[in-house]
Amino acid sequence: MQGLYALKPWYSRRLGRIVRFAVDRNISPDVFTLVGIVGAVLAAVCVALGCWLPALLMLGVRLGGANLDGAVARAREVSRPWGFVLNEIGDRSSDLIVFGGLFVLAARTAGVTSGAAILTCVAAAAATLPTTASLAAAGAGATRRNGGPFGKTERCLAVVVATALPGLLVWICAIVIAGSLLTAALRLRAAHRELRGTAA
Prior knowledge:
Layout: H1 8-14, H2 16-24, H3 29-48, H4 52-76, H5 81-110, H6 115-126, H7 129-139, H8 152-164, H9 169-199
Protein name: CDP-alcohol phosphatidyltransferase family protein
Organism: Metallococcus carri
Transmembrane segments: 31-53, 157-186
């Protein structure tokens, strides 16, 4: 179950011109990691203010930066272990920053101690589980898994919908929590099967 991650090859092709531009000018992949984080910060501000369309655009920048750092590193043949570390830190930081904006929106519209605000914090924590599962499995020698059913792209979409319809924030957070738990469980199950086969 790849979810919207199945669109990544198509999305990567759309970014091909930027990759070629970066290669021609020897632009570091780390620049795009930073662009993704800046996009997340701007998206969080838009989310906190309840401006869903600018939030959508800035989340596009956030996802574009997350996609381009690896694509540029591969195209320039400068992939390195530390680049992987920076990429992961950038991705996780961006997720938390965006959910921080969602928490501010919940606090503004329903109150700091409201169910919506509390569930936003739970959703932010749950959103880290799929990647935690993938990295733990990769550390044990399994394939590093990405994608759905509820991965990074789906989380961004959920944030945009919550920004546009803050009255549904509790339900959207519940979807994020359930989707993240399901995704983490599926990744762990796949990793368990792979590692068990390797051990055999």
